[in-house]
């Protein structure tokens, strides 16, 4: 069944009714006097219409037919899905489609295969090295934006399916052997012919991440669902987060783009959530009270320096009652100080500084056993505020939005928790354990702190996305095939309904709340046991090319209309999407027509289909597949290769 949207001319219909009785002479005169002007008006309208029609036809001919919009939308029912739909399979071959588009976007040069626009090494040299500010986001200006398609490296292959991808990555996809040499004795990574193997080791867990996590599990409860979200600072190749997934703990791993070549890229190729990031002068792009657990394993962050500001930022993003885990220097320095090539006095001073900062944040040190130390954040600030009457170091932060975290400066102060009436009450509300947490009403919503979102709206949104994802599966049946997709991105997540509807699939979703939305819902998303980040889609995302297998965009182009160029958002989507990855865009039909003309120039195979409620809804959906192509075999030149 097809539905056609066309642009039609309005027509003016002029008619006259004649009465049944014979007119009087006076009436005849009046009739003639009235009819003559009407005839003249009709003649002028006819001439005007003919002239307009002639001009339109001439303009359309000059533009090669581009003057008319004739959009074919397909409405799918479950019985109508067949081989005529888009090919979402991964097979590394695609024929170039002959389409009518305004502009084509050429391949970038091969040197851009790992281009991260906002973490560009050359641009970063212009900024201060103090506190690693040069490694923060520094995005190109409008005149420096690339207008080309970032290529995959020659020989790029579809990643291994999860869970095999946790341990294996194709060498051609991330052709860097530096870590195999630098971390050879730490069991991080091994090179085996055409692939890398990740044994699960780390600097502080040479026996493997699983054994290390078991050790943590003997100290705090990792198995009862109370710990669901975690953050790993300075994550390496994210083995800690990778092995927590089997325990239903979802970790955001981050590390800067630095001398450890491609560590975050390795994590993403493994199918593990990760972002490029650094603790420096800006808040981490997450809301307050987001994570049940934070982790640093020899992450080399100077926790005791700069008045403890980095631990204050960890405190902001930790939930009340959340845990901070530290292993590596200076923990157990009495045993390791020689191997770390530091003096005992230096290491003792560092640990003392960390202990003092943690105490000033009202954290309680639970345990230091073996190579691991664990602190716990208080469940509320009643006692902490009483203590602040004696000492003001650090002070509570002045009235501010603790969830505001997009280019927001870190402050040397303690983020206050929501008020409570008793010492037994959990500030901000108690969270259900996982998996009940997913569908329980988030405390931010039940307490009315997410403006305009009620319990009823939350429930309706959850049901809406179950229905929408079910419809998506009828159009793209590979959404239901385990292993076809692993890394997913929702560019405008609202309450995380898209991710929640996919929670039983072997995928993870990075839920983005754009910095420009009126209602900040990212805190509620985290309270559901999901993960996400803030992002301005007029800028590049802090991630490597080819991060995601599927990108979902709900009303993103409406949100950014007149804010930045549509083509720049689509070029960024192309950069972070894998070859043969899929895209679902839902937006107003007029916007999707413009989107499709650009995606044709990006060499995507795309099709606009009707809304799940039928053809009368102005909102439509664009389903697309990025065709497979790579940089040529010879380095230094842009180009494409299909096979």
From TrEMBL:
Return the broad EC class: transferase
TM ranges are 35-54
State a single Gene Ontology molecular function: methyltransferase activity
Q: Which GO terms describe its cellular component?
A: endoplasmic reticulum membrane; endosome; trans-Golgi network
According to its UniProt entry, the protein's GO biological process terms are: methylation
EC number(s) from the headed UniProt entry: 2.1.1.-
Keywords annotated in UniProt: Glycoprotein, Membrane, Methyltransferase, Signal-anchor, Transferase, Transmembrane, Transmembrane helix
Q: Where in the cell is it found?
A: Endoplasmic reticulum membrane; Membrane
InterPro entries named in the record? Put_SAM_MeTrfase, SAM-dependent_MTases_sf
- Topology with respect to the bilayer: Single-pass type II membrane protein
Q: From which residue to which does the signal peptide run?
A: none
Pfam families (UniProt xref): Methyltransf_29 (PF03141)
List the PANTHER family hit by this protein, alphabetically.
METHYLTRANSFERASE, SAM-DEPENDENT METHYLTRANSFERASE
In the record, the note on similarity to other proteins reads: Belongs to the methyltransferase superfamily.
* Entry protein name: Methyltransferase
